[in-house]
């Protein structure tokens, strides 16, 4: 009766002491190694021996264990870049306990983060960041993602196309502090990975940067110089505005009462001025006016004559027309009497 009870007790408590099957999680690192761990549920109670193999390849024992509290929790073993497209088999062994699993690693690839991250303030006044990929994957199979922030504000994210290993921030502020990091992964055309790499080490530019951030950017210096030159030119133009006005809009000369000064208004050559001067002489005829002598007055004279009003001219004098004052001949007053010797007497 007693043995039967003991056997029944062992059957009831047996599952309690049974070893729980560990969950093996595998990931291809940088297309060079396979990393498998089995501590997702906590540190195992026993040390397992790990064996693995890719499809149609010989099974191998673990060459390098990962430990925690002197207990094996994982294994790292080398692989080739094309192995991720094959089925991966694992086996954990402890005494009589054996736990087998099959894994698909095509989408479980994690690359190493980019390295040699540098920053350069370009001649185009933009901020350029450069980095290098360290994975054996072709550049057209690797895409990148950038995150940057200014003055420790929120991160901004931006995708970078495959084969490109640079990023540009347009017109950065010299008074701000920029921080940037990069990560990468396999693109869809080469077997999209579900895992991004870790973020790279940050690089800084601006205030408190490891590079010479206290110096004023070149584009700001040029802007200051151009602004100063423009200001100086404006001041000079304002001071010389009257002179510029004379040059652009010549003032009309004030007319002169002297006739020959009109020629000075025009910018004429000396030879052209000579053409306006008269080079010939004219005869000037002095004119005299004679008064009419009535017949009654003439009868009182000894001789019976009548005086006829007439105008006579005398053109025997030649006067140069170049002297305009010689052209003026005063006329005698209408009430003045002409000397009798100059009156022509006409017989009846």
TrEMBL record:
Organism superkingdom: Eukaryota
Localization per record: Membrane
Gene Ontology CC annotation, any one: external side of plasma membrane
Lipid bilayer topology: Single-pass type I membrane protein
Signal sequence region: 1-18
Pfam families reported for this sequence: CRLF2_D1
Gene Ontology molecular function: any one: cytokine receptor activity
Keyword Signal part of the UniProt annotation: yes
PROSITE patterns the record matches: FN3 (PS50853)
Keywords: Glycoprotein, Membrane, Receptor, Signal, Transmembrane, Transmembrane helix
InterPro entries: CRLF2-like_D1, FN3_dom, FN3_sf, Ig-like_fold
Membrane-spanning intervals of the chain: 218-239
Domain Fibronectin type-III: 113-212
Protein name according to UniProt: Cytokine receptor common subunit gamma-like
């Amino acid at each position: 009766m007693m043995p039967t009870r003991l056997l029944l007790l062992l059957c009831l408590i047996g599952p309690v002491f049974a070893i729980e099957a560990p969950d093996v999680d595998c990931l291809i690192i940088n297309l060079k190694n396979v990393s498998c761990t089995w501590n997702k549920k906590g540190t195992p109670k026993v040390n397992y021996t790990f064996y693995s193999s890719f499809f149609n390849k010989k099974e191998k024992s673990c060459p390098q264990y990962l430990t925690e509290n002197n207990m094996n929790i994982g294994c790292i073993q080398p692989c080739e870049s094309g192995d991720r497209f094959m089925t991966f088999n694992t086996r954990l062994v402890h005494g009589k306990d054996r736990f087998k699993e099959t894994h698909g690693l095509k989408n479980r690839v994690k690359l190493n983060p980019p390295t040699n991250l540098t920053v350069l303030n370009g001649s185009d006044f933009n901020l350029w960041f450069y980095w290098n990929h360290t994975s054996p994957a072709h550049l057209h199979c690797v895409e990148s993602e950038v995150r940057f922030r200014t003055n420790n504000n929120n991160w901004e994210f931006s995708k970078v196309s495959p084969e490109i290993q640079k990023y540009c921030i347009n017109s950065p502020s010299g008074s701000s502090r920029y921080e940037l990091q990069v990560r990468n992964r396999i693109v869809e055309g080469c077997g999209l990975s579900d895992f991004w790499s870790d973020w790279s080490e940050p690089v800084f530019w601006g205030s408190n940067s490891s590079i010479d951030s206290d110096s004023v950017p070149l584009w700001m210096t040029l802007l200051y110089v151009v602004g100063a030159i423009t200001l100086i030119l404006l001041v000079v133009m304002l001071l010389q505005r009257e002179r510029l006005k004379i040059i652009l809009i010549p003032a009309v000369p004030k007319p002169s009462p002297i006739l020959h000064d009109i020629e000075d208004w025009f910018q004429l050559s000396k030879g052209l001025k000579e053409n306006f001067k008269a080079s010939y002489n004219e005869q000037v005829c002095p004119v005299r006016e004679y008064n009419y002598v009535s017949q009654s007055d003439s009868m009182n004279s000894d001789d019976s004559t009548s005086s006829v009003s007439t105008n006579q001219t005398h053109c025997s004098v030649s006067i140069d027309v170049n002297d305009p004052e010689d052209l003026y001949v005063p006329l005698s007053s209408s009430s003045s009497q002409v000397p009798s010797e100059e009156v022509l007497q006409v017989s009846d």
